[in-house]
Each structure stands twice: as C-alpha cells, then as structure tokens.
Amino acid sequence: MAAPEAPADPADPARDPRSGADRTGVLIRTVIENCAVATVDAHDTEYASGHVVVAGNRVESVGPGPAPADLPGVPRRVDGTGHLLTPGLVNTHHHFYQWLTRGLAQDAGLFDWLVALYSIWARIDEPMVYEAARGSLAMMARGGVTTAMDHHYVFPHGAGDLLGADIRAARELGVRFSPTRGSMDLGTEQGGLPPDFAVETTEAALTATEAAIDAHHDPSLRLDAARRRRALLAVLRLHRTPARRRDAGPPQGGAAAHPRLQDGAGGTVLQGDVRHGPHRLLRVHRLAR
User: Fold this and answer.
1) Tens of pLDDT along 190-199?
2) Is 282 helix (H, G, I), strand (E, B) or coil?
3) Fewest C-beta atoms under 10 Å: which of 82, 96, 97, 197?
4) 207-215 LR contacts (CB < 8 Å, sep 24+)
C-alpha cells in the first residue's frame, strides 16, 4: 500500500524527499499509534488500538498495539488516542476548474447551468486553473482524500498548460493524482453549448493529448512511483440539442474510430473502450506505453 508523499520541508536540510531517506541513507519513518485502525483490506481487519508505520512514501506496516520502539529513522511519533485511522479516500471524478464558479447558477438545471457557466469557463487560463486546483485539492485533503482524478476538458485557445497547472498544484500539496485530458468538439455554431473558441477538433485534441502524455505521464507500475501512473482521454460529443442527439443515434466514427486511437502514434498506444459515465456519450480511451 502506498502513501502520498508529504511535501518536502525546506527547513530540514537532512531530508531528501525524492528517496524518502535522509542524507545518511536512513529511511525516514512516521509512526501513528494508539488509535483505532480500519484497514479496509479484503478481510475487513480492524484494530481497536493499533499502529501504522509510513516509510518514505509507503505504508510499511499496520498492526495491533503500539509500533516497535526500536524502529530506525523515526523523527516523529503521532499519538492517535481517541482517533480512527483509515486508508486515504479516492475521488474518482472531479472538475477542479469549476471551483472558480462555486455558488453561481445554483437554481439552474444541468443544461441551464452549463449554458450559464460555459461563457466563464471558456476564459480560464493557467494561473486560474492552478488556483482552482489548489482550492479543490486542499478541500479534499482536509476531508481525507489522498488520491484524486481531475477530468479537465475545457481548453480555451492560448490558455497555457492547464494540465501542468493541475499537476503542479497536486505535487505541491502532496496528493497522488491521476490527471485526465478531455476535449469538446461541438461549439455553439454546431448546436453545442460551449463557445467555439473553447472547443477543439479531433485532430487537435489528439495532438495535444500526445503532448500531455510526453510531458506528464508516469508509466511506472511501482506504487511508490505512481504519482501520475495512468491517464485517461475522454472525448465529449455531448453538447447537442435533444433532437440532434436523437437524429444522430449511437455515436459513429469520430474520435473512437480514429486510427491514431487504434494504431497508436508517437510511441503511445491508445486502446479504445466505450463506457457509460456521468456524461452522455462519454468515450474513454486508456493510455498505455
């Protein structure tokens, strides 16, 4: 079981955050003990009074009673008396940028809400997304979330590196993060909801996705290195009037049938899969090296 990396303490000259060890090579451990522990493992193991040892950025051991007193590299022992310790929660679907417009159009239904806010979202940029990600991730971390996924699909022209802003915020806050690069290809001129300058062609979205993979994807399957282990590409064609969706029928061709998704490009294989999700006609393609 892996634990999210704690942000490095710049005041601690002995700490090497990349290895989880100090400069003498001793692995740094944090011990939390004397607390109730719910492991949420396959057997629902629980301890009325137990301990957890975090070594570097991995959960090294979980068990009953206090942790061994002679563990090396333990600068801090946390007394958890009166508290319950559980694994970190996982948020599997979020839109960080929408933090910027919390409280607006609260009485609107879904599509009226989208119409009201897309004109604002279509003007986001890199600094705004960075601050929105910090606010969203901080809120989740305070509620016990240690792994998060952001489904970002609004990329206004010239807005900067929006995925990079998400990733920078997650790294600074020490949260494990699975960034998602989505897109919209149906603007107002074609009957969609977002402004035309906030949508992308399929080709542009694929090119930008490949660039995002090259810049940010971590293909490692080792849990302690898997801070950005897997990414998803979601191509949205949901912004149609009900009549146009009915006339169009099931999605045909488009991004899901694009040869670059089936055959790979730039050393990246995009394996197609169609899944139902909270967005209509959401097409998800797993990215693998």
Assistant:
1) 877 788 888 8
2) strand
3) 82
4) 208/155, 208/181, 208/183, 209/181, 209/183, 209/233, 209/287, 210/265, 210/266, 210/268, 212/163, 212/179, 212/181, 213/268, 213/287, 214/266, 214/268, 215/161, 215/163, 215/164
The answer to whether residues 169 and 126 belong to one domain is yes
pLDDT over 90 percentage in the chain: 43
Scan for tokens 């090579």, then name that residue. Answer: 25
The structure's pTM equals 0.70
- The residue range of the domain holding 40 is 15-85
- The token pair at 288 is 């693998």
Q: What share of the chain is helix, strand, coil (3-state, %, to 5)?
A: 30, 25, 45
For residue 118, give the amino acid letter.
Y
- CATH code where residue 32 lies: 2.30.40.10
Distances (CA, A) of 240 to 119, 197, 275, 278: 17, 17, 19, 16
Q: What is the torsional sign of CA 10, 11, 14, 17?
A: negative
Select from 61, 85, 109 the last residue of a domain. Answer: 85
Confirm if 151 and 94 have CB atoms less than 8 A apart: yes
SS3 90: strand
Regarding whether 142 and 184 lie in a shared domain, the answer is yes
* 234 plus 202 within the same structural domain: yes
Asked if the structure places residue 4 within a domain, the reply is: no
CATH number of the domain bearing residue 111: 3.20.20.140
Each residue's pLDDT tens digit, 251-275: 443 444 445 544 443 333 343 332 3
Q: What is the pLDDT of residues 37-81, one digit of tens each?
A: 999 999 999 999 999 999 987 899 999 999 999 999 999 999 999
> Which residues face 29 on adjacent strands?
55
